[in-house]
Structures are given as C-alpha cells and as structure tokens.
Amino acid sequence: MAANTEKTFKFVVVGGGIAGVTCAEQLASQFPSADVALLTAAPLIKAVCNFKQVSKTLEEFDVEERPSSVLEEKYPNLRVIQSAVKALHAQQHTLQTVDGLEIHYEKLCICSGGRPKLLTQDNPYVLGIRDTDSAQEFQKRLSKAKRIVVVGNGGIALELVYEVEGCEVIWAVKDKAIGNTFFDAGAAQFLIPSLDTDKPERAVTCKRARYTIEGPAATQGLAVGGGGDRQGQRRGLEEPGSALGPDWHEGISLRGAEEVSHRVSVEYQSEVKQIYTHQDFLLSPLASQTPDTGSWPVYAQLTNGKTFGCDFIVSATGVVPNTEPFLHGNSFALAEDSGLKVDDHMMTSEPDIYAAGDVCTAGWEPSHLWQQMRLWTQARQMGWYAGRCMAADVLSETIELDFCFELFSHITKFFNYKVVLLGKFNGQGLGLNQELLVRCTKGHEYVKVVLSGGRMLGAVLIGETDLEETFENLILNQMDLTPYGEELLNPNIDIEDYFD
Ligand code: FAD
C-alpha cells in the first residue's frame, strides 16, 4: 500500500454531525499537540453556535452547517477527512474508507448518526427526511403536489404537517393522539386547533448559515443551496449527510401546488398496510371497492381500511442507528434498537472504541429522571462527554457520569408554541403510580405536571409559561409537594416566589 494512503492519529472521530464535531473539538482543544482526525461522509460539518445554558440542565443552541476548513483553522491539530468509512478492524485499530485510505487510531469515537426508518426501500414515491439533501428533494416534490400522505407521529411528522401549506395532508398516526412521543392526549388536544388556523406570517429567512460547494467538490458531494440534479451530484446515496435539527424547514418554502393554507386530516390508530403504484391499484380489487379515490401516482392503504391516493408518501417513522459499516468482523454489543451499546463512559464493548449521538444506545442504569431520546441536545451532550471520557482514559483519570444525564430536558417548538419537556414528562415507566396535574388555557398555554409519591418527576410546558426553572428545581430536589396539592398550578400564585 502506498504510504500516503495510510495515516495514523491518536484520536479518530467518525461523523460530522453534532455529536462527532463536538467530540472532535473537545479532544483537539484538550490535547493541542495530539493528532486528531474527523472522518465524515459529507462535505459540510455541523457546528454548535449561540450556545445558551437556559437553566441547570436546559440548553438552547443554533446549529450551522460549515465547510470543514473552519474547524481546521480553529484547531491546527485537527484534520477533517471527507471520506466514508467502509470497514472497521477493531482488533487492529484501523478503519478503511471508500477512497482506499487506511486510518490507524489509538482511540476511536463512532458518531455516524442514524438513517430514516423507511416504510419501504427503493420506492420513488416514498420519501424520508433526514438531511439537507432529502429536505430539498421533499420541497421540490411538494411544490407540484396536491395531496401527500404523512406517516409517523414523532417530531418530524409534527413539524411537517404544521409547516406544509398549499397541499392536502393525510396524516396517519399509529396512536390515539398526535405527538405521542412527546406528550399525552391532553397536550395533543391543545395543539390540534393550530392545524385548522392559518399559520402566522413569518419571513422566510435562513437562520442557519449555508454553504455551497462548487467546482470539483460539487461532483464529490452535496451542493447545498445549489440546483440541478441533486442525486446526480452525490457520490452515492448510501453516504448520508448529518441529520437536520429543529429549524430544518426554516429558509425553505414548504408549499404545495394548491391555494390553501392548512388542510390536514388525521387518521388515528392507523398505519400503512400496503402501497400501490397507479397501475397496481387499478388492477387490484381495491379500485372497484373504493370508487372515489381519483387518479394519483401512488395509493396508500391504511390499516383502518381507508385508501388514499396521493402524489407521494412521507415516511417519518423514526431512525435506525447507522452502524452497518462498523459491524462486520467485530463483536459490538448491540441494544434492542440496534444502537451500539455504550456504558456510562460512552464506551462500546470493543476496546478503545466509544460512540455518541444517534448511533449509540445508553446501556448504563440511567437516573430515574432521564431517558435517551435521539435529539440534538443529547447528541451534543454525548459527543462532549465522550470526548472527555476518551481524554480521561488517556490521562488515567477518573470521570463521573455528567450531570446532564441526571434529568431529561428538552426545549423545542411545535406548531409555533414553545415546548419544554422535563424528566418523565409522559410518566414513562411509572404505570399507575403517578398523579397528573394539568392547567390549560386554550390557545395560550398547557401545563402538565407528573407527580409520584408527592414528588415531581416530570413536566410538559407548552407556551410561554415561564415555569421551567422552578419546575426543574422541584424535580431535581425531589421536595415533597403533597402539602401544596393543586395549588401548585394555581395561576394566581407566583410559584417562583413560593419556592424561593
Ligand atoms: P448526524 O447528525 O446524523 O451525523 C452523522 C454524521 O456521520 C454525518 O456527518 C454523516 O455524514 C456521517 N457518517 C455517516 N456514516 C458515515 C460513514 N460510514 N463514514 C463517515 N461518516 C459517516 N432533534 C432535536 O433535538 N429537535 C428537533 O426539533 C429535531 N428535529 C429534527 C428534524 C429532522 C428532519 C431530523 C432528521 C432530525 C431532527 N432532530 C431533532 C434529531 C437531531 O437532528 C439528531 O438527533 C442529531 O442531529 C443527531 O446527531 P448525530 O451527530 O448523532 O448524527
């Protein structure tokens, strides 16, 4: 093998998403004289900016897509190599990339993210949304669409059905209420009317900085912001870009071909049973059984017995960890969800290999107030903590599980409302051993508190409630709130003063 195809680094991180970039930055700054490599399949990396610690555990930040040179300029000891990993030899401590590079490492962190769990592979009428490329493909197809079927009930589906205008949306959710991953039927009830009202006007500005890769690079990777045949510009669709974040739809117009604002019909407790092309549908007995289905390129038959023709189907049914290139020939312990199982030091079961972000599954006994969810915030926290654990290992130092894993906390926006989720916000794992307090003002706020044995274990705050810090403290200090009863949510009591 020619010498320049073999490289050796002390630390290698795979993945240019939030987890990988945060981990690589942590290592490069802690070991300025060590060689650190960030290996990534996509030409742009994701960087955290405007980081704000809102409270002890709640954090907010923006994410920018940046060319990799920005990282290399900031950390002279950090090399960003754009080449997808195709194999890992864990015993030999080497990685092989699709470009024929062989990379040796002392310590490795895998942050290769996840892939959309598609209803079906290779059906041109079924789209998943994961990265900038797929979001732009969706936008292009939507601009000509009159009706789409959205399948899924997680964050992406929630945002999508709210953001899409000018196109009828049939939303198939497998649960009894929308947004089951994030909240209960009460919160869903609070949010549903937003689907029938016009969206507030918002300037189409782009919060996230975008870069266009032009010239030779464009033939190698994805040209963000560029036009043309996007799929043709990619080196291979099997090499994914980084996952999008909360503001993925900002700056792109999600408008269909019709002159309507929102037109969403929810099909509860239904999943897709079968997908038919136009021709297959006409030949099937369904065509005669359901005469009013119109003429569409694709048809989705749902488990509730209804069939809908549409322009295309969006499969927003979650992600599967992107572990494939790393497994062959190695013996990683995998979790039930197929993630790389990591211990409380973010270590996998293979020597000197760590993992962070969407690709991994927390295998430690978690705090009773925390659960893993494949979210931006957790990708950052895990990447940062994995970097610190790798450093501690090299320096033979001990390190405790970081405080951010004490309490689950997440801030986001759904249907244009601020949403804060704390602890066991949905009573996860509590069964009947829970009591709920709810305060709701239609169109204004929805506050739910989960109590067990008089102690607060979780909360859902929708709207500008200003309660997050106080509730976070009450959850963390596990004070017995029995004496306060329902007064806890009395809007006439300044709860912050109360507990100060
Ligand atoms: P990713 O960002 O997926 O990065 C993986 C990286 O690995 C990429 O750079 C990729 O190119 C690289 N890679 C993959 N395979 C290889 C390989 N073989 N070799 C080399 N490199 C490789 N989270 C929230 O908190 N709030 C939200 O509102 C929210 N909305 C979302 C909306 C959408 C549409 C999507 C798709 C996700 C959303 N998420 C949201 C989830 C969030 O984006 C992810 O949890 C997070 O970005 C995961 O970060 P990561 O670094 O683990 O993985």
Describe this structure in words.
The chain is α/β, with parallel strands linked by helices. The protein has three domains: 3-115 and 319-404, FAD/NAD(P)-binding domain (3-Layer(bba) Sandwich); 118-207 and 250-315, 3-Layer(bba) Sandwich (FAD/NAD(P)-binding domain), CATH 3.50.50; 416-499, FAD/NAD-linked reductase, C-terminal dimerisation domain (Enolase-like, domain 1). It contains 13 helices and 26 strands. It has helices at 18-30, 69-74, 132-142, 155-163, 185-191, 216-220, 230-233, 278-283, 285-289, 324-327, 376-394, 468-477, 495-499, and strands spanning 6-14, 36-40, 44-53, 59-67, 78-82, 85-89, 94-97, 102-110, 114-116, 126-127, 147-151, 168-172, 264-267, 272-277, 298-302, 307-310, 312-315, 319-321, 340-342, 353-355, 360-362, 409-414, 417-423, 435-441, 445-452, 455-462. Strands 1, 2, 5, 6, 7, 8 and 20 form a seven-stranded mixed beta sheet that branches. The protein has a five-stranded parallel beta sheet with strand order 10-17-11-12-13, with helices on one face. Strand 7 (94-97) and strand 8 form a beta hairpin. Helix 1 (18-30) packs parallel to helix 11 (376-394). Residues 203-237 have low confidence and may be disordered. Flavin-adenine dinucleotide binds at residues 14-20, 39-42, 84-85, 111-114, 129-130, 155-156, 240-246, 248, 322, 325, 357-358, 374-377, 379, 412.
